[in-house]
Amino acid sequence: MSDPANLAAVRKQIEALAQASGFEERAVAEVGLCVNEAMANIIRHAYDGRHDQPIDVTAKADEKQLIITLRDWGNGMDPSKLPCRPYDPLEPGGVGLICLGQWMDDVLYALQGDGILTTLVKLRTPRTKQQKHERAAK
Fold it and tell me: For position 105, which CATH number holds?
C-alpha cells in the first residue's frame, strides 16, 4: 500500500535481497535508497499523497543483476518526460530522480494504461557514466 509507514520495511527487504545476492555494501545502500525514493515519488505524485493505494513491488537477482519493479495504478505521469533540472539544495524536490539516474544502471517507465510499471536495474558490474549516457541517447 501507498502508506509511507511501509517504506522502511520494503527498503529493508530489497536491501536484504541485494546483500544476500552478493552486492557490495555501497550498492546495497544505493538500491535501498532508490527503492525508497521511487515509492515515495509514487505516493507523492502518482497517488497525490493518498495512503490507501496499491504499489506492487517485486525483486529478483541473478548472476548479472538485480531487477526491481514497482507497479502503480496512479495518474500515469511518466517521470522520464519531466524536464531535467540541475539539483538545487534550496529548491525542494527532484532528489529522487537524481538518485535513480546516478545509482541505478537502468530506470525504465512503461505506461500501463492505468498507471506505470517502473523497472530499476542494478548491474553487478555497473555501467560507466559514458555507457549510461550512450544508452540513454538510443
Answer: 3.30.565.10
pLDDT(123) > 80: yes
- Predicted model pTM: 0.84
Cell of 31: 538500491
* Contacts with 95 (C-beta within 8 Å, 6 or more apart), sequence order: 37, 87
Tens-digit pLDDT profile for residues 78-91: 887 866 666 565 66
Number of structural domains the chain divides into: 1
Q: What is the DSSP letter of 54?
A: -
Contact between 59 and 125 under an 8 Å Cβ cutoff? The reply is no
- Which DSSP string corresponds to 65-78? EEEEEEEE-S----
